[in-house]
Design brief:
Blueprint lengths: L6 H4 L29 H12 L12 H13 L10 H7 L10 H14 L11 H14 L9 H9 L10 E3 L14 H15 L6 E3 L21 E4 L23 H14 L4 E5 L3 H5 L13 E5 L12
Parallel strand pairs: 1-2
Antiparallel strand pairs: 3-5, 4-5
Length: about 325
């Protein structure tokens, strides 16, 4: 999407993973998660709630049981019991952990490291040598003190760090703007919610979902886009009647090979996979616009721009 954002967003995230000074992600924040979200951050929250004695399944889906557990934890800590896990609740959830610990908080750490650093650590709750090495590596990557101890600063930077999609989830990688695989990163919630939609779409038998630009690993300006800076925007290609959207090239909604019915199913799957967390979908098919599924915006004839949102976000464009 080619659209300007307030200047404050330009300094929220650093570009391209360049060598980082101390406190590289000075504007990192705990991402607010709430009912309808899914992904690694939700899974980490569930393990952290378990660590604090709450009974909740660790399935990566922020459903009613997770909301109930979050409210119970918030009540126990004297916080506003709204069931929304924002920075204050995150801060109360995360303990300081280190080598030798064995608990559910370590499971939360392992989940975050696997998602944010593309690792395959066993999620067993054991803070062993491999976990410590991964922590030190992340701390160095983030430009924070690389001591292998996971305290509030490491937790915040790790939770904030973007996630990378699993293309086995009925996705194919398309990079029409020349940004390559470096532009596939997005927040854990956005990635997981899109993956779920793509898995659901697989059941229609109409091919894979073409994944275009999302954002860089640490956000920031992305060539060819005026947004895609905060990890909550993902571009997708429309579906073709020959189901060859991953191999035969991108089309517009006016093209003879455009499959409106299948594209409608995709948009419906996107919305169903993230209830309350899809701010809008830019795409100029007038029929889908008339149905309230997409929104018109210039230069969106040939791709769908999905904008996810959270209950609380530093930029109002991304607030649900």
């Amino acid at each position: 999407m080619r659209r300007g954002l307030p200047a404050v967003l330009a300094v929220v995230l650093l570009m391209f993973g360049l060598p980082a000074p101390a406190q590289a992600y000075a504007n990192a924040f705990f991402p607010t998660q709430s009912g309808g979200n899914r992904g690694a951050d939700v899974l980490a929250i569930q393990y952290l709630l378990q660590h604090h004695g709450q009974s909740v399944a660790a399935d990566g889906v922020f459903g009613p049981a997770t909301t109930t557990a979050a409210k119970a934890f918030q009540t126990a800590k004297g916080l506003g019991a709204d069931g929304i896990v924002g920075p204050q609740t995150w801060g109360a959830l995360v303990p300081t952990i280190r080598s030798g610990d064995n608990n559910s908080a370590v499971k939360a750490l392992q989940v975050e490291l696997n998602a944010k650093r593309r690792l395959n650590l066993p999620v067993d709750g054991v803070f062993g040598a491999a976990v410590r090495d991964a922590v030190v590596s992340f701390q160095s990557h983030a430009g924070i003190g690389a001591d292998g101890i996971v305290g509030p600063v490491t937790w915040r930077n790790l939770a904030w760090h973007y996630d990378y999609p699993d293309f086995a989830a009925n996705l194919c990688d398309q990079d029409p703007d020349g940004n390559g695989t470096a532009a596939n990163w997005a927040t854990s919630a956005a990635v997981a919610q899109l993956e779920q939609a793509a898995r659901s779409f697989a059941g229609t038998g109409q091919g894979k979902v073409p994944y275009g630009d999302a954002g860089f690993e640490h956000g920031g300006d992305i060539p060819g886009h005026g947004s895609h800076e905060v990890g909550l925007d993902i571009d997708l290609w429309p579906i073709r009647t020959d189901n060859a959207q991953c191999t035969a090239g991108r089309i517009t909604w006016q093209s003879p090979t455009y499959d409106r019915a299948a594209t409608r199913q995709l948009v419906q799957a996107i919305r169903a996979a993230a209830p309350g967390h899809v701010r809008l979908v830019f795409f100029n098919d007038p029929v889908l616009i008339g149905e309230g599924l997409t929104t018109e915006w210039a230069a969106h004839d040939n791709h769908l721009h999905v904008r996810y949102c959270e209950k609380v976000h530093p930029n109002s464009l991304y607030t649900c």
